[in-house]
Each structure stands twice: as C-alpha cells, then as structure tokens.
Task: structure prediction
Amino acid sequence: MGLYNQIYLKMNGVLLAENTTIESALEADVQDVFTIVRNWSGITPAPIVRSATGSNVIPLSGVEFNFEQKMMDFELVGLGLWEGGLGGKSCLSDGYITNVPRSAGVGQTTTISFSFRGTPSAFE
Result:
C-alpha cells in the first residue's frame, strides 16, 4: 500500500516514462509596495506563469520526447502533471520549452533535462 503520491508527466499527451524528477511552480514577478508612513503596504499583482523543470534518463533507443526540436521550432507544447493515487489532482498548461541541457559522466546515467514556461493553472 502506497503512502505518498508521485507526479506523472505528459508532454503533448506522451507519458514520459523515463522521467526521474519533476519540479513545478506557479510564479509571478510581484513587486512589494512600500510607503513612508505604512512601510510595507502589500504587493502589486503581476501575470502568473506555470514553470516546470524535469530530468529524464536517456535509454539506448533514444529520447522519448524531442525537447530540443520543440525548443528550436518554438513549438507550443502541452504539459500535463498528474498526482498518482486515488483522487489525484492534475494540472494542464500550454507553453514553451526554454532550456534543454544534457548531462553524462563516468558511472552516471545520461540524462536530458528541460525547462518549461506556460499558461497558469492550479492542481485541481
């Protein structure tokens, strides 16, 4: 019996089975508002974006999603995040791949990672 959820990742509807880590956040460039009398008075709202970064191992058969080509083409991609388990929440966002590093080394699994920025959406 599982005690904790995992988050499963899809890009353009493709389940990324080789995904090893995923981190996602809602971000905004909010600015603090300061006044002489009230000191900190609150914030100035700013547009919100869904960001995500992930890392995937690369099997001998190759990368399961062509992050590099999607970035090179400035192609709009769909990101889907699903919490596993009963009643898991999900989050969908349309956006762009903004960074695609690869990593390899002696005694290490070769990985390809990505950064994504897209439309804001909450886990529901």
